[in-house]
Amino acid sequence: MSAACPSMPGCAPWPGKDRYFLLYKNNLIFFLIFPCHLQHCATQSRSGHHMLQKKNFKGAFQLSLVALAAGAFSAQSFAAESDASVQDLDQRVRILERQLEIQKEEADAKAKEAAVVTADSKGFSIKNAKGDYELQFHSLIQADARFYNGDSLGGTPGRLSDNFLLRRVEPTLSGSLGKYVGFLVTPEFGGNSPALLDFWGELRFDPAANVRAGRFKEPVGLENLQSSGALTFIERGLPTDLVPGRDIGLQVHGQLLSQTLSYAVGYFNGAADGGDATPPDTDNRHDLAARLFAEPFKNNPGIVQNLGVGIAGTIGSVAGTAGSGAGTAANSAAIVSGYKTVGQNTFFSYRGATVAEGTRSHLSPQAYWYYNNYGVLAEYVISRQRLVNGANAGSIKNQAYEVTASYVITGEDTGYKGVKPQSPFRLGADGWGAFEVAARTGGINIDSRAFAGAGTSSFADITSSAQVAREYGVAFNWYLNNNAKVAVNYEETRFDGGATAAQGGNRQNERAILARLQVAF
Q1: Which of 238, 307, 386, 492 is the most buried (most CB within 10 A)?
Q2: Which residues are within 8 A (CB) of 101 and not within 5 positions of it... i.e. 6 or more apart?
Q3: Phi-psi region of 431 (alpha: psi -120 to 50; beta: other; left: phi over 0)
Q4: What is the DSSP code string of 422-456?
Q5: What pLDDT digit, counting tens, does each position of 13-59 carry?
Q6: How many angstroms separate the CA atoms of 231 and 314, rounded?
Q7: What average pLDDT does range 86-111 have in this prediction?
Q8: Per DSSP, what are the bridge partners of residue 461?
Q9: Residue, of 56 and 306, whose pLDDT is higher
Q10: pLDDT tens per residue across span 141-194
Q11: How far apart are CA 497 and CA 318, in angstroms?
């Protein structure tokens, strides 16, 4: 059995040993060895005997303390060295942690400055982290088929050729160069030869004030301004025949009153009805175009939230030389080469000697309304211009209108920018896309004064050009997803005039089935 520990704070007996003890003091551990059993030594000390042994005990005890102190000093030195190693290791860990923090900060900074690449149903884009420098790539591809009534007897009024064609192949590059500069470039590879459709730069000071310069559409026709990929029908209606197309000029445009009122005012070289201006412009005369379009309930959900009404028009003048014909450099954009049906066949044209000389103007009230899966679009166009053919001179007024109604069978919302299917088509799975049906009626009326005059002095020939065209059409559209669309239209156009008396006086009705596969992104 172990002896009791001496009266020393921090003393503890060594298990199984009577003369060995551990002493903990001042963070040091002492190993004590006594020369005799403590009880025996203590008894001898109290009786006064064996003083020598007591002295020996004291000396031995002191010697043990000295020896153990030396050992403790060595332990303390080892502990000090260990503490130094721990501190050194801790310092190294702190340095590594800071290096990792610096690396993370640098990586985060690079990530904030890295370009962002996007590829989705809206197209492809690359932009910097701030988003003020951006390049976007979009494309519109429309492959069409046209089938008409009757045989392919070219040259006979009403007899038209069936055909397949690439109606549009339009890749587009657009983007921004900093906060205030934007641009767009769109070539056209459909048709017979490549052409440049749109090419413009823009200063974007504020949503209420933007300045655009280059080649783009004049702000007039409602359906003409609608994206070709968002049309309800395969081809635009007859009013587009009477509005100017793309032109070169300068335009200020923007949105006001919490984006409920949009405006555009532009100054252009001038373009003929239904056509695009072809440079150079040498007559030193120009057109002023303007448009106001209001959506007063745009910010208030309800049945009239997507109701829009507007007015647009142009005024300007052109210079032609009587008897020079419409194809000279001075007036190549001054007069329309011909008006087309929705089947894209010319039903009216002026005589070759007829030129535009003097004032011309356009006026177009327009409106649309969309509510859930219902839609209506309507516009009316008046085109006035002064014509000259030899000694015959005068002003004429041509007019056109259309009303289009649409309904999305599958329930998706419709709008001016088209239909987005809620359940894209998936072969062998749920999802068929969106289905839409539509109906349209429209007409165009050529001023009777265009046919007045004896012999070839009239501006147009009633035996080859119709005075009135009335169009009726129905459409079925299948939106497979946001990028693919299949469309089938049936169009019938009826005419007054456009044929000789032997041919019945009226051009034969045009009945056409139009089909399209469209891919857009």
Answers
A1: 238
A2: none
A3: left
A4: SS---TTSS---EEEEEEEEEEEE--GGGG-SSGG
A5: 655 555 555 555 554 555 555 545 544 444 444 444 444 344 444 44
A6: 24
A7: 85
A8: none
A9: 306
A10: 999 999 998 644 444 555 678 999 999 999 999 999 999 999 999 999 998 889
A11: 29
Average pLDDT over residues 308-335: 67
Write down the H helix ranges in 188-310: 222-225
Find the helix or strand (DSSP H, E) in which 51 lies.
helix 51-113
Going by C-alpha positions, the residue among 414, 487, 483 that lies closest to residue 139 is 483
Q: What are the C-alpha distances in Å from 140 to residues 168, 184, 294, 337? A: 7, 14, 29, 27
**How many CB atoms are located within 10 Å of the residue 158 CB?**
22
Identify the band that residue 86 occupies on the pLDDT scale cut at 50, 70 and 90: confident
Task: Count CB-CB contacts under 10 A for residue 7.
Answer: 6
What is the average per-residue pLDDT within 305-317?
A: 98
Alpha-carbon distance of 234 to 512, in angstroms, equals 12
Q: Hey, what amino acid is at 447?
A: D
Q: What distance in Å separates the CA atoms of residue 288 and residue 256, rounded to the nearest whole number?
A: 21
Specify the pairing of strand 484-497 against strand 510-520: antiparallel
- Identify any residues that bridge with 76 across adjacent strands, giving them in sequence order: none
Residue 132, sorted as left (phi over 0), alpha (psi -120 to 50) or beta, turns out to be alpha
How far is 172 from 192, CA to CA, in rounded Å?
Answer: 19
* The residue type at 357: E
Q: What is the 3-state secondary structure (H, E, C) of 335-382?
A: CCCCEECCCCCEEECECCCCEEEEEEEEEEEEEEEEECCEEEEEEEEE
Task: Tell me the C-alpha distance between 287 and 506, whole Å.
Answer: 36
Question: Distance between CA atoms of 352 and 348, rounded to whole angstroms?
Answer: 12
Domains and CATH numbers, the chain: 11-98 (no CATH), 116-520 (2.40.160.10)
Q: What is the pLDDT of residues 375-431, one digit of tens each?
A: 999 999 999 999 999 999 999 999 999 999 999 999 999 999 999 999 999 988 889
